[in-house]
């Protein structure tokens, strides 16, 4: 079920103080990067990803590739930083509003 606007707004408040956990370099989205992303997402639930690419279309494609692989929800993108959320069914850290 996709996140509602109020849920995204709620998560953006928490994401504001976060530092990027995953850095997508010049090689782009690799299997190793996706594995690291999955581990970080399972542990933190809400993470920021920084993309090194200067072209907007390429960044959008990388963000979509990460989102499609992980099944995470895209909370926001600002410049070269994207924020993703995926609830951990074992130990949820955020209680989302309705």
General description of the model:
Helix content is 41%, strand content 22%. The chain is an alpha+beta fold and 98 residues long. Strands 1-2-4-3 form a 4-stranded mixed beta sheet, with helices on both faces.
Q: What's the helix count?
A: 3
Order of helices and strands: HEHEHEE
Q: List the uncertain runs.
A: none
**Gross morphology:** globular
- The percentage of residues in β strands lies in 15-25%
Q: Briefly note the structural class of the backbone.
A: alpha+beta
* Number of separate strands: 4
Largest pleated sheet: 4 strands, mixed
The radius of gyration is 13 Å
Mean model confidence by pLDDT: 92
Q: What is the strand arrangement across the widest sheet?
A: 1-2-4-3
| First-to-last CA distance | 12 Å
Range of helix content: 40-55%
Summarize this entry quickly.
The protein is an alpha+beta fold and 98 residues long. The chain has helices at residues 5-15, 31-44, 56-70; strands spanning 20-24, 46-51, 73-78, 81-85. It contains 3 helices and 4 strands; from the N terminus they run αβαβαββ.
List the helices and strands and how they pair.
Layout: H1 5-15, E1 20-24, H2 31-44, E2 46-51, H3 56-70, E3 73-78, E4 81-85
Parallel strand pairs: 1-2
Antiparallel strand pairs: 2-4, 3-4
Key structural traits:
98 residues, alpha+beta, four-stranded mixed β-sheet, 3 helices, 41% helix, globular
């Amino acid at each position: 079920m996709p996140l509602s606007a109020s849920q995204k707004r709620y998560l953006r408040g928490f994401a504001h103080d976060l530092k990027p956990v995953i850095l997508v370099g010049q090689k782009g989205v690799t299997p190793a990067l996706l594995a690291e992303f999955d581990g970080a997402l399972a542990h933190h639930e809400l993470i920021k990803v920084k993309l090194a690419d200067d072209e907007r279309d390429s960044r959008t494609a990388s963000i979509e590739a990460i989102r499609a692989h992980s099944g995470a929800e895209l909370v926001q993108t600002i410049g070269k930083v994207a924020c993703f959320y995926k609830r951990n069914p074992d130990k949820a850290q955020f209680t989302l509003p309705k």
